[in-house]
From TrEMBL:
<comment type="similarity">
    <text>Belongs to the TrpB family.</text>
</comment>
<dbReference type="InterPro" id="IPR006654">
    <property type="entry name" value="Trp_synth_beta"/>
</dbReference>
<dbReference type="GO" id="GO:0005737">
    <property type="term" value="C:cytoplasm"/>
</dbReference>
<dbReference type="InterPro" id="IPR023026">
    <property type="entry name" value="Trp_synth_beta/beta-like"/>
</dbReference>
<keyword id="KW-0822">Tryptophan biosynthesis</keyword>
<comment type="pathway">
    <text>Amino-acid biosynthesis; L-tryptophan biosynthesis; L-tryptophan from chorismate: step 5/5.</text>
</comment>
<keyword id="KW-0456">Lyase</keyword>
<dbReference type="GO" id="GO:0004834">
    <property type="term" value="F:tryptophan synthase activity"/>
</dbReference>
<dbReference type="InterPro" id="IPR001926">
    <property type="entry name" value="TrpB-like_PALP"/>
</dbReference>
<keyword id="KW-0028">Amino-acid biosynthesis</keyword>
<feature type="modified residue" description="N6-(pyridoxal phosphate)lysine">
    <location>
        <position position="90"/>
    </location>
</feature>
<comment type="function">
    <text>The beta subunit is responsible for the synthesis of L-tryptophan from indole and L-serine.</text>
</comment>
<protein>
    <recommendedName>
        <fullName>Tryptophan synthase beta chain</fullName>
        <ecNumber>4.2.1.20</ecNumber>
    </recommendedName>
</protein>
<comment type="subunit">
    <text>Tetramer of two alpha and two beta chains.</text>
</comment>
<feature type="domain" description="Tryptophan synthase beta chain-like PALP">
    <location>
        <begin position="57"/>
        <end position="379"/>
    </location>
</feature>
<dbReference type="InterPro" id="IPR006653">
    <property type="entry name" value="Trp_synth_b_CS"/>
</dbReference>
<dbReference type="Pfam" id="PF00291">
    <property type="entry name" value="PALP"/>
</dbReference>
Length: 391
């Protein structure tokens, strides 16, 4: 059986590694040498578990959707990450990383954000721990996610609009890395997804793995078995997906379905379907699949969803796709919008546009009547209301 875990050099198969400027070498090496020791320590485990329980509100519910189950002829559960404090899965990671940063003696936090959910989650934990926080956000995303920008500022963060490139997530990440290079000693960069140089993809996946750990416990209680037949999750960088599948990677009974943003169509020239369109390259510190030209210039991605609007993908997901462990579906804007409106009208749950891409994929899979399906609702849709109202 193939092993899908990360190796000691930070690679998932051919994807991963740490490709960084010399000035960041000590930062990344210190983190690599510290993160597992800290995460496995008793005081971290206690602090992290207590904050997840009493501050975030975990465990998040595993909700049996009778409407979706009836429609697709199987048993469909929704893992309700939308009910976490701050409205998404992102807080699982930011709480863990700020505890690690504090243990390492860091006194300043920076982050990048696309949809703003990671930015809000970072600003939230910085307020909690009373650390200064700077969040880089593409000017395009600042415009379409105004509520999250105001939340971050209310929480005390400095939000820096980025005007280079397409002014979206890729460009925000570039600026955050520039900041890190300028302040390597006192600053910890809380990366929001399973991207970046090793150990970030592994660290973020481990912190998000609380999702799949809870799924196992909840299914065992509800179904008398701790695994589903299918797991569904959306992928931009891929943190909610990594958390959803983490404890099932080597369980071949579980089929993994990942959904990426097809935009206006995979072949339209306006898409963020990196796994469908990408080739191997290096971006933001790791070797992964990228949307790029033949001479290696990054192609600007497009998605109606700010959180999926990224030209790369986490190396773990590039590996799962290349080995065939995961089935990857591209969902276009219209399909995601329709799925979002359907869930809202039929279940009274307004999902984030990112999560709507996972919901839309249910249409594209044929289920058997006895199948148990778990789909992660990575966030709630308040941040996307302007987009929903427009349509």
């Amino acid at each position: 059986m193939q092993n899908y875990a990360i190796d000691e050099k930070g690679y998932y198969g051919e994807f991963g590694g740490a490709y960084i400027p010399e000035i960041l070498h000590k930062c990344v090496t210190d983190l690599k040498e510290s993160y597992l020791r800290i995460m496995e320590s008793e005081h971290f485990r206690q602090d992290y578990a207590q904050l997840l329980r009493d501050y975030v509100g975990r465990p998040s519910p595993l909700y049996h959707s009778k409407q979706l189950s009836g429609r697709y002829g199987c048993k469909i559960y929704l893992k309700r990450e939308d009910l976490n404090h701050t409205g998404a899965h992102k807080i699982n990671n930011t709480i863990g990383q700020i505890l690690i940063a504090r243990e390492m003696g860091k006194t300043r936090i920076i982050a990048e954000t696309g949809a703003g959910q990671h930015g809000v989650a970072t600003a939230t934990v910085c307020a909690l721990m009373q650390m200064p926080c700077t969040v880089y956000m593409g000017k395009t995303d600042v415009g379409r996610q105004q509520v999250n920008v105001k939340k971050m500022e209310m929480l005390g963060a400095t939000v820096v609009p980025v005007t280079s490139g397409n002014m979206t997530l890729k460009d925000a990440t570039n600026e955050a890395i520039r900041d890190w290079c300028t302040h390597p000693g006192d600053t910890h960069y809380i990366i929001g997804s399973t991207i970046g140089p090793h150990p970030y993809p592994d660290m973020v996946a481990r912190l998000q793995s609380v999702i799949s750990r809870e799924i196992k416990e909840q299914l065992a209680r509800e179904e008398g078995r701790d695994y589903p037949d299918y797991l569904f999750a959306c992928v931009g960088g891929g943190s909610n997906a990594a958390g959803t599948i983490y404890h099932y990677l080597n369980d071949e009974r579980v089929r993994i379905v990942l959904t990426e943003a097809g935009g206006r169509g995979v072949n339209s020239g306006e898409s963020a379907a990196t796994i469908h369109l990408g080739s191997t390259g290096i971006l933001h510190g790791c070797r992964t699949l990228l949307m790029q030209t033949e001479d290696g210039q990054i192609t600007e991605p497009y998605s109606i969803s700010a959180g999926l609007d990224y030209p790369g993908v986490g190396p773990i997901h590039a590996h799962l796709a290349s080995t065939g462990r995961a089935q990857v579906l591209a969902i276009n804007d219209d399909e995601a919008l329709q799925a979002a409106f359907d869930l809202t009208r039929n279940e009274g749950i307004i999902p984030a546009l990112e999560s709507a891409h996972a919901l839309a994929a249910l249409e594209k899979v044929t289920f058997s009547s006895g199948d148990i399906v778990v789909l992660t609702l990575s966030g709630r849709g308040e941040k996307d209301l302007e987009t929903y109202f427009k349509y």
